[in-house]
Amino acid sequence: MFFEKEDLSFHILDVLELKQKNVNMFNNGRNFNAISFRYRxxxxxxxxxxxxxxxxxxxxYVPARLNYSRTSNIDELIVVHxxxxxxxxxxxxxxxxxxxxxxxxxFRSILDCWNEKELGYRYRCSALLCEIFAECYVQNFVSKPQxxxxxxxxxxxxxxxxxxxxxxxKLAEKSFMSEVxxxxxxxxxxxxxxxKYIVNLRIQHAVGLISAGYxxxxxxxxxxxxxxxxYFSVEFKKAMGVSPSNYLYNxxxx
Length: 254
Prior knowledge:
This protein is α+β, with helices and mostly antiparallel strands and 254 residues long. It has helices at residues 100-116, 121-140, 151-160, 168-174, 179-190, 194-212, 217-223, 229-240, 244-251, and strands at residues 10-27, 33-46, 51-54, 59-62, 68-84, 93-95.
């Protein structure tokens, strides 16, 4: 999930305050991401596959290039538009903070800083957005059991996810259990299957390698745990919405 990311790279495009009533509009694949804090809201964001009902104090993330409609009786929010190079999803994500006052103040501060445009304001706004991301991460963080039955497997996974020889069978063996039982316990702890978790780690690593620009795409695939470049390309496109080559030439920051 977006709010569970701890290493986003970004470039701020704009910070806006909106106060609207009786909204009924369609957004057609805007070429930027948006994170917002709603002070007052009775708003529905709807895509082809999901519907999100946003209320007071809700924080939401809308990815770039997503078609969605917004209908609202009232919608008062501060929104930050930004580019990011190392996260892609086709889903709107949102949550209600446990302590909304902290995020409310941060969003108000970034808006004031952006509008005042004092010397160095872009650096200060970037720092404030980092604070926003950090607070969202903290308020969404769920600690994993330190002495769970699969701890040995998780440690082995983190040390070896870039190896093409890693398998679910090997991971299960590290905790002396069957693959079926391992998959069950892993999903209970991490919310996704172990295979999906591995793919996410590999694609994040691949994005970093592509952005660094030191390796060919085939080398990136191999260094990220994929011996088969075609399979890597398919997995990359599923995760990022574009092929590795399109990401390299069209989405790499200048």
